[in-house]
Sequence to fold (469 residues):
Amino acid sequence: MPKPLRRVMDKPEPLRFNELHGKGIKLEHNNRQATRSSGFGDAIVFSCRTVRSYEKVFLKHRQKEVDWIGSLRVGFCLQDPKTQFTQETLPTLAFKHLTDQGGYWLRACPDELLRTSPIIYVYYAYGNQMCVILEEIVHTTNGQIYVGGYGQTTPAQAVLTINEHNGPYYLFCEVYGKTDQIEIIDEATLPDQTIINEGLPISIHGSIIDFVTKNLNDNSNISQLQYLNYLYSSDAQHKLTFMSSTNHNIILTNNNRIACVDNLKIKSSYAFLNTPMKLNQMLICRVMNCDTNISSMLLFGLTTCNPASLKNRNLPEDTTALMEQYSSSKWFIDSDINANISMYDELAFWFDLHGRVNLSINNRLPIQLKSQILSSEISDLTLYPFFDLYGQVTSIYLYNFSSQEKLDFNKVSNARELCLICHEHLADTQLLPCECILCNKCATVIKRPSLLSDCPFDRKHISQIRPLS
Fold:
């Protein structure tokens, strides 16, 4: 992303942590160092002032040699925290409790980055991005949050998109999991970056299809809808599949019902359905994997181009180039869905009589996507849905079409949430006697004899764990 031509050069006041912080945090060293005293929660911290675009915040972090899951989370928020909370009203955990409110953007730092970089840096920046509305390319301004390792040759990674405001923002962190201490380091006092990470390896991404397959094998419930299961009878057969002969950087599994990104270094990963979509017909799918190291989220589109005509062709990496190459067809896309989408979220897409393309996540009230179909053309078009898994969503599980008329947003769901510790697995295990719920993997780690076996949420002693029925 190119830097702006003109930047403000006056030096801001030294950055420190805000006096408003979680109850489990102790501030020291002139409010530059934040240490989590105990437990797993109550460890949210903010900066004392707003941070400018491109202003790098250097954080020295410490990780404890324990069997905890998860680590430091970094990001930015729009509002002055002291005007929004007191120490008593500040939520215990940031994930969902704050990030679902809007104006709060937070991502976990990659474990490998923390392992190889004792000092990391985080910043946000703005630049032009392209989206397509009514078949015309227009430019929008979105921000991105970047995280990198001080002294590493690998450039900073864009981990999250800010798409609501232009800032400025407050630094927003959660001293979480293995990370029990962070310290803001002044850039002038940084050690020699040529030796700070000498000899430490750089991480590479693992196989997405192996991850998804293992999760399905370990927990068969993952393949079952929870929020949108009322749309189908219990014996409903899965009929929708991805077209195996028309894909780009995609590996298909589970009888072509699951699409997984093959190589994360390639810009686009197209997955076309083999069946057209009709008016008010809902496409139901589920997210099977997310990579939070990527800034964008997901592209969903509709096209009059029959995917069978693209059989075994080399498709361009850029979606705009794809539309230009097949310009005789109509393309309706949302180049980056502006929504919070997480692992195992259930997505329902449909278009209505007015040409609006809608998305409901986990049976919540729908959001309208940027793509718009001319209402006068709807009855004459045959539209095939497709995805470009170029963003955080790196695997999709297809279910069936359903009728939009069956949607009931007041439907009470007993769906299991993501584990609040790892954010990768469904919370399916209960700790006793406190009855707190997390995933089996994290519960098993916490209950190891080598640990104190205390609940990370309320610090009560754990006598046993049991699966939820």
Residues 208-218 form the longest helix (11 residues). The two ends are 49 Å apart (CA to CA). The first strand starts at residue 25 and ends at 28.
